[in-house]
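Researcher: Next entry in the queue.
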Amino acid sequence: MVPPPPARGTGKPGAPLPFDMTDSSGNASGGPPGLLAVGEALRPGHWIKNAFVLAAVVFSGRFDERLAWGVALAAAAAFCLLSSGTYLINDVIDRRRDAMHPIKRMRPVASGRLSVGAALVAGGVCYLGGLGLAGALTVRTVAMDLPLGGMGLLFWSGCYVVLSVLYSLWLKAHAIVDVIVIALGFVLRAMAGASAIAAPISPWLVVCTFTLCLFIALTKRRSELATGTVAEASSARPAHRGYTRDDIEHMLTVATALAILTYSLYCLAPRTVVRLGSAHLIWTIPLVVYGLFRYNRVTRRTSAEPVTVLLADRVMWAVVAMYVVIAASVIRYGSLPAVRDVLDIRP
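Model: Structure for this entry, 347 residues:
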């Protein structure tokens, strides 16, 4: 008697899958195979996260320089490749666990539409392409009088790759460490963006980016825990064994307070006031508070990916647009005497 073939994603002969991953023709479900599956595995919808690379263009006051925007956008494109490489490698590592998940089982690698070998090759190409683009951009900033010899973009890009690989292989399995590493990944994006345009990297850029992205990472963990029991969430992501819903809510409260506090301190910091010539950046604080509170409320009411929620929320887009307009106006016009003296900035 011929034994039944191994079930996809288990490696054990005849082992049943908790979900049917094939259509009526016997093909893996979830979408088309081949190059379209590669494109899906790149997760272009998540490239919006790399907007943090562009932060330095605004806060350095160079938002009216076409060259600065061109270089920053190219650096963001490099991080789109690097982040897609990480998604591919991560999907390969998690393919068996993803195959047991009601939603993640539809991913190209978990569903079998994209082979492990093809995913690894595509991930390697993305890493090489991203680092190659970062290296090409770095050539224009090489100078011994700059931090890291002007090679900051390539250096921080390399740090991002190393951190991402360590996260995929090991760090993501540890509660609290996982969200801290995710936040640090966004910090590296922001630092790389500043290095790309040879702008000084402010400690405030690091602190504010870290606290904001720690908040975002925790909302994602909450959404994952909301889809079922803690045991079910833990089977999909081992780090959830170290969390409870109460833990996440407490951490979110602290992260929200830290994000608001650090941003407010940045707006009032003497160095910020001197550089901008006024203290009018404080008028963006209400928008930051509203944005954080709304994001927290909206993501609490759904189990969807926080990025998906953000993309679908027109109010959040309006808040972001208003923030950019006000911040840019303060940076450009806030130092004019008639405007500057509305707030007393004398020591």
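Model: The radius of gyration is 22 Å.
Researcher: Noted, moving on.
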